[in-house]
Structures are given as structure tokens and as C-alpha cells.
Amino acid sequence: MRYSKIPNETIRRLPIYLRGLAMLDRQGLKSVSSDKLADFVNAPPFLIRKDFSYFGDFGTRGVGYDITNLSRQIKKILNLDPGHKAALVGVGNLGSAVLAYPGFKIYGFEIEAAFDNDDAKIGKKIGRVSVEDISKINTLVKRGIMMAIIAVPEEAAQQVADSLVTAGVKGILNFSPKRIAVPKKVKVISIDIATDLARLPYYIPSS
Amino acid sequence: MRYSKIPNETIRRLPIYLRGLAMLDRQGLKSVSSDKLADFVNAPPFLIRKDFSYFGDFGTRGVGYDITNLSRQIKKILNLDPGHKAALVGVGNLGSAVLAYPGFKIYGFEIEAAFDNDDAKIGKKIGRVSVEDISKINTLVKRGIMMAIIAVPEEAAQQVADSLVTAGVKGILNFSPKRIAVPKKVKVISIDIATDLARLPYYIPSS
DNA sequence: TTATGTGAACTATTTCACAGCT
DNA sequence: AGCTGTGAAATAGTTCACATAA
Asked: Tell me, which fold does domain A8-77 have in CATH?
């Protein structure tokens, strides 16, 4: 670590780089230049190089970056230990989509538990996990699960967040459009598909 | 428009402000101060004021912002005409979640069409829309639909994007983890839930 | 009083250009 | 020759403090 401060934007891009590297790896490549990687991640080459330079010298001048090594380094930076576990709360359409989402694999984590409050869903097996009653959330940390995904209706989001915090969860990915309040030590990342769609018309000429 | 250049970040926040205003409106309030609104949107009061100031004087000193008027102004800025229409491509779990998502309403658009390539789904009515064969995408612009949401598997994303561009769609919200290539005049906003989840461990101490 | 609107200072991030390895 | 790594310059975005208006 050669710089004291790493931009948040750099951290935001690292998973995207990792995804690009996974694609290149699947194509059988061993190493890649920042120019080539740029085509896959929508960031200019010098930004890619700068981003990596915050953490060390990962490349070889005249050659590029070794894909396997670079991937490993990024995973280490992001704290993506193999077998990182996450839980899902809310097994509706969105939750089911999350459970079925193939994109998590390359980041080395698995959704290990799913919760819902609907008796019709509890006990059902979806993919590898069985849906548990939402009251079982307090067993999470005991099971080594520190992250959770909230995919419940807006009205229930805060209550679920409270349960997760009480259970000791340290990070939350929130899909509900409601801002949820948590203690500062808990990190929340929110995604609201509607707010993203809502700025699209701004960029569309006239209409 | 008093400033020549409006920050992209400001545009990104406008839909969030709109959402906060909708909540306050539901609570029956008529006007709101930047301090109060700040509690709802996770942005500091002075940033809220600065953001609005790029577009005009929307508030009243000593009083605050009229909720109805401010909402209307933001919608105008974002080009959210009432009855803005969007199409959905891919009616799997994720697509179904999008169709059922209640959060679009406040932005004044509706999902007016849905497409899939699965015969078992085509013809089915989900909510207000009937699923159409994906080959019907070329009718979109004729029907006044300029925006589309891609919720298909990664492998199909680029092909769907090509069809949408050919059909004349001007904005795309892309849920697949694949970067899609489109002409510059078409705006793409991408959401990959895995990349967001992947940076959560970075912010979680030790573990 | 109260709360907006904003220039100026500050901080963060991106871009450039090129020195330095392999 | 090719491609990384990085200071320095440029740009973008945030924060502050306060003049200004209701």
C-alpha cells in the first residue's frame, strides 16, 4: 500500500475489472494489457493502470498483467476470501432472481441462506438453499454469514434491516427503494432500479 | 439554466430527491426545507440546495420548497413526461420482479410491453402487459416506446441490445453483467448486482 | 428569525505525458 | 519496441460561510 488514500471510485471499479479478467481467462488468455482490458470494462487504459498502482506493481512493463495473478490480487484487496457467504431476505421475484444469478460465482461467494415470512415458501428448496422462517435470522453470524441482501417490499425493509443488525450482520445490499437506517459500523449499499431508469430520459434527446 | 455545466452526480441524485418528495407528499406535507429533505435522501442540505440551484430558484427563503412545485420541476428537468413508456425484454425472475416493481410509478412511467423468446411465456398476461415474441421488438418505436430494460441471460444481452438499437430505442437499462456495445447516441445505464455485492466485503472490518 | 442561493475554498478523481523496466 | 507506473496538471464535485430574501 503505497498511497495513503484509495479513491472510493477505484474500489467501485475493482469488481468490474475482476469480471473483465474472468472473461479473458475464459478465452484462454494468460496476460492482458491495460489497453486490451479497457475494451472489456469501459474505462480508459491509464485509469486502469492508476487504479492498480494504488495497491502495488501488478504488471510487467512491455508485457502487461498476468490474469491469474491480477485476479488474485484484486480478490485480496476486496477481501473476497474464497467461500464468502451471504444471506438473502425476501424470496419473491427479485429474491429468486438473486438466488439464480450466475454472476456471483466469480467473486467467490455463495448465497448460503434465504429467509421469508410466507409460510407457503418456508421449507421450499430453491437451488441449493432452503427457505427459512425470517425469525431464524439471528442464527446468521453463528453460521459465519456477515452479509445480507434485502429483497423485501419497501414497508418491511427497515424492520428486516434491524433484525440483520441485531443478528450481527456487517454489510447489507439493499434493493428496496427505502433508505434504511443502520449503525455507522454497518455498511449499506443500495440499489434502486427505478432511480436508474428515471435518469435515462434525461440523456435521451427530445423524444 | 444559469450554469453552463450540470454535474452528472446532480442528475443521478434528482430521482432520489423526487422519491423523497413523494414520501413527504404522502405524509401530507406541503413544503419542506433542505434540512428536512436531507433526512430522507442521505445527502447534506447544502448539496441539495446547490443541486437545485443549477436549474433555478425553486425555493422560498425562510420557508423552504413547495413539494408539488419542486416535484414538477424535477420531472421537467429529467424529461419525465407523464406517461413515459418503457419495454422489458426477458421475463424471467428478474424481469418479473421489474414488472411487479411498484417504484416506477412516481417517475411517471409504465412498462408497456414485455418480450421473451420462450413459447411457454409468450401470450401470458403479467400484470397489465402480455408477453410478446421477441421478434416483435421492431414495433417499439411505432408504439412510442423509446426506452427498454434488458433482463435476459448474459449470452443474449448483446443480441437483444442490437435488436433494440435497430428498432430505434434511445435508452437502455442493462441488468446483464455483460458490457453491451451500442452506438454513441444510445444511452446505456448498467446495473450488475454482483459488482455491488462484491465491494461490500472491502468495507467490512477483518471478518 | 428562518432557510435559500451561491461564490470561493477545498477535496476527489481523472487525464496526460513521459520516465523507466523488460 | 512495448507497456507499465506515476508525478503533475486539469477537471469534477463537495463543503463552507454568509449575503440575501421572506
From this structure: Arc Repressor Mutant, subunit A (1.10.10)
Q: B142-196, pLDDT tens digit by residue?
A: 999 999 999 999 999 999 999 999 999 999 999 998 889 999 899 999 999 999 9
Superfamily of domain B84-195: NAD(P)-binding Rossmann-like Domain (3.40.50.720)
CB A22 within 8 A of CB A14: no
Report DSSP state, residue A80. Answer: -
Task: Give the distance from CA B198 to its chain's centroid.
Answer: 23
C-alpha cell at A87: 444471506
Q: Spell out which residues of B between 32 and 71 contact strand C, using CB within 7 Å.
A: 33-35, 45-46, 49-50, 52-53, 57-65
- Best CA proximity match to B18, nearest among B76, B59, B61: B76
The residues near B187 (Cβ < 8 Å, ≥ 6 apart) are A200, A203, A204, B170, B171, B172
- Mutation target to probe the A interface, by most A beta carbons within 10 A, among B84, B89, B200, B207 is B200
The answer to whether A53 CB sits below 7 Å from nucleic acid chain D is: yes
Percent of chain A with pLDDT over 90: 87
Mean pLDDT within A192-207: 88
Q: Which residue ranges make up each domain of chain A?
A: 8-77, 84-195
